[in-house]
Amino acid sequence: MTYDVVVVGAGVVGSLTARELTRYKLKVCLLESEADVAMGASRANSAIVHGGYDPVPGTLKAKLNVEGTVMMEGLCKELDVGYRKNGSMVVAFSDEQLEHVKMLKERGEKNGVKGLSVISGDEARKLEPQLSDTIVGALLCTSSGIVCPYNLAVAAAGNAMDNGADLKLNFRVTGISDDGDKYVVTSEKGEKVEARYIVNAAGLGSDAVAALLGDDKWHLTAKKGEYMLLDKADGKMVDRTIFQTPTKAGKGILVTPTVDGNLLTGPTSEKTEKGDKSTTLEGLDKIKSTAVLSVPKVDFRDVITSFSGLRASCDETDDFVIEQSEKSKRAVHAVGIDSPGLSASPAIAVYIVELLKKAGVKLERNEKFNPNRVSCSHFRHLSNEEKNEWIKKEPAYGRIICRCENVTEGEILAALRQNPKATTLDAVKRRTRAGMGRCQAGFCTPFTTGLIAQELGIEETKVTKFGEGSELLIGERK
Amino acid sequence: MKIGETKELICINCPMGCNLTATMTESGLKVTGNTCPRGEKYANEELTHPTRTLTTTLRVNNREGKYVPVKTNGPISKEKLFEAMKVLSEVTVSAPVKTGDVVFASLFGEADVIATGTVD
Amino acid sequence: MLKRDIVIVGGGPAGCAAAVAAFDAGTKDILVIERDESLGGILKQCIHNGFGLHRFGEELTGPEYADRYKNMVIERGIDYMVKTMVLSIEYGHDNTKIVTAMNSENGVFAIEAKAVILCMGCRERSRGQLNIPGDRPAGVYTAGTAQRFINIKGEMPGKNVVILGSGDIGLIMARRMTLEGANVKVVCELMPYSGGLNRNIVQCLNDFNIPLKLSHTIAKIHGKNRVEGVTIAKVDERLRVIPEESEYVECDTILLSCGLIPENELTKGAGISLDNVTKGAVVNQDRETEKDGVYACGNVLHVHDLVDYVSEESDIAGKAAAKYVQNGCRNADRIKTITVEKQGAVRYTVPQRIDVSENQEDVKVYFRVGAVLKDVSLVVRNGDQELMRIKKRKVAPGEMETVKIKGNMLIDSDRISISVE
Question: Long-range contacts of range A314-317, CB-CB < 8 Å, 24 or more positions apart?
Answer without folding.
Answer: A314/A207, A314/A218, A314/A219, A314/A220, A314/A221, A314/A338, A315/A218, A315/A219, A315/A220, A315/A221, A316/A217, A316/A218, A316/A219
